[in-house]
Amino acid sequence: MGLTIAYIIIAIYSIALLLIFFYSLAQLNLLINYLGYKKRNQVAPKYNLLDPKEIPYVTIQLPIYNEEYVVERLLENIAKIEYPKSKLEIQVLDDSTDDSVLDTAERIKELQKTGLDIKHIRRENRQGYKAGALKEGLEIAKGQFIAIFDADFLPESDWLKKTVIYFKDEEIGVVQTRWGHINRDYSTLTRIQAFALDAHFTLEQVGRNSKGHFINFNGTAGIWRKECILDAGNWEGDTLTEDLDLSYRAQLKNWKFKYLEDVETPAELPVVISAARSQQFRWNKGGAENFRKTVWSVITAKNIPFKTKFHGVMHLLNSSMFLCVFIVALLSIPMLYIKNIYGHLGIVFEVTSFFIISTIILFVCYWFTYKSIQGSGFDNFVDYIKLFFTFFSVALGFSLHNTVAVLEGHMGKRSEFVRTPKFNINNLTDSWKGNKYLAKKLSPNMILEFALMLYFLFGMYSAVPLNDFGLFPFHLMLFLGFGFVFFKSLTAKA
């Protein structure tokens, strides 16, 4: 290996490590915000729902697409929402292309007989996907506030009473609630998804919102002020995460977002890795698309302070961290050999400590979010350590898949909005096998994931002849992570 190539590898490796380090510092700042906010008493103007004059008109939108397994559960649950029927409208925005349309229509007719104002809205095509459906429904929505629930969400009956009251403050454009997980303990896959989402819905959402930094409506389990949607330019389908896109456009127009950590809205996590893959791909590609679309508007905005801009840029770069992690992983083995061949470059390898520091920072941050939901105590801390390193390994195993998504997003390559199949899985005895919406083809990335598993096995072996075990734990986690993703994909028809 030539010295010039070695310098290039060191430079790329170091830049990726530094970006991960800056990301971890941003997370640490959010943790400080989060802990400070938890100690404050919150006072906010609220509607008095005991006064009929103060009860606002609400439209609930339910965007669905081929949801045979969960649509009955969804409609039954939404029908239990406690709110005056004269001030409530429900729109079932049904883009389905299968037989579920007929069952949905029948159930809606039954609910209409109870006096519920519920409509079955169909479109001729899926133009704009979910964003297009929401936009079309908005045109005829009666409500001044628009609550949105995806098909797998199950809000409590008093959900509207706990959320719509905050719109008394006319500057608030969105009220977002925290996601819960009805099947958190179904498998290792669901546990690590819940772990990552809990961190987002505690540390990140509260940490940003508490200081007036930009947060995002999460696509579901929240309410928009109709005026805010229209003022921000309405729903647009040019990214795969239309929720993040509209959120930033609204906040750039000075609308405030209210995040309610204490209001939990239960939902179902993907139980099969193919479903998790499609969801991860959409979220990460959409994040990169929104960085491309929005970052310059954030940087040049005159109405927001520097710290809010910094957190906004880091937020939009969230998914791009997978690209940095993948680069660090891929180059870590060449770095091991460079260190052995070019002893005089030893000082450069101190930069590796940034990755260790970043990992420790994230370990601390995630512990606070874990214990806020699961509780503290020694046993929980031991469980947390196991879960953290399982999560870390599997996240590394997803890094190739998510890097492809991020690169496509940054390069502007368009792709179809692929929905996440739902399963109606509530407990360990429920099975996902036979679900007709599952992807039948294996992911082409699997071959590369298997190759990467072997590559990091070689990295672990390399530690022996080089007598350098500094990167051995990292390569072990990469080996286990890519192995987990590969074998789970193989057995689950990814």
From TrEMBL:
Membrane topology: Multi-pass membrane protein
Alphabetized InterPro entries for the sequence: Nucleotide-diphossugar_trans (IPR029044)
Superkingdom assignment: Bacteria
Principal subcellular localization: Golgi
Pfam families: Glyco_tranf_2_3
Keywords: Cell wall biogenesis/degradation, Glycosyltransferase, Golgi apparatus, Membrane, Transferase, Transmembrane, Transmembrane helix
Molecular-function annotations in GO: glycosyltransferase activity
Designated name of the protein: Cellulose synthase/poly-beta-1,6-N-acetylglucosamine synthase-like glycosyltransferase
Organism: Saonia flava
